[in-house]
Design goal:
With 105 residues, the chain is α+β, with helices and mostly antiparallel strands. The protein has four helices and two strands. The protein has helices spanning 22-25, 48-52, 78-82, 93-104, and strands at residues 34-38, 88-92. It has a two-stranded antiparallel ribbon. The structure holds iron/sulfur cluster (SF4) (2 copies). One iron/sulfur cluster is lined by residues 36, 53, 55, 57-58, 68, 73-79. Residues 34-63, 64-93 form the 4Fe-4S ferredoxin-type domain.
């Protein structure tokens, strides 16, 4: 198969972000399929997950990590893969939502 390379000005425009701050409006966590569930008993607060999170969705201080910011966490699972202490478990959102509904009665 061969491809014809186009000059830049012939490439169709895909999308344009016209204003700054769009990440404040678009809560990327809404498309998450898997949720990183934190097992606090295993977490040593080494902050490795924070270093790897591509969405800056793990709030930390230099000494401590806090619960994930689910408004923006996309559920990519990198944090769970990189955690050296198995303190993060990727759980299907549907499973969590059903459990929450059951608890409501
Ligand atoms: S990488 Fe694992 S042990 Fe380290 S702070 Fe994150 S969840 Fe806790
Ligand atoms: S699942 Fe991905 S986006 Fe969410 S906290 Fe982990 S690394 Fe960040």
């Amino acid at each position: 198969m061969s491809y014809e390379l186009k000059p830049w000005h012939e490439i169709p425009i895909g999308s344009i972000v016209t204003e700054a701050g769009s990440s404040k409006i678009n809560h990327t966590g809404s498309w998450r399929m898997l949720r990183p569930v934190l097992h606090t008993d295993k977490c040593t607060h080494c902050l490795i997950c924070w270093i790897f999170c591509p969405d800056d969705s793990i709030p930390v201080t230099p000494q401590e990590r806090f619960e994930t910011d689910f408004e923006y966490c996309k559920g990519c699972g990198i944090c769970a893969t990189e955690c050296p202490y198995d303190a993060l478990e990727m759980v299907p959102e549907m499973e969590i939502k059903l459990k929450e509904l059951e608890e409501l009665g």
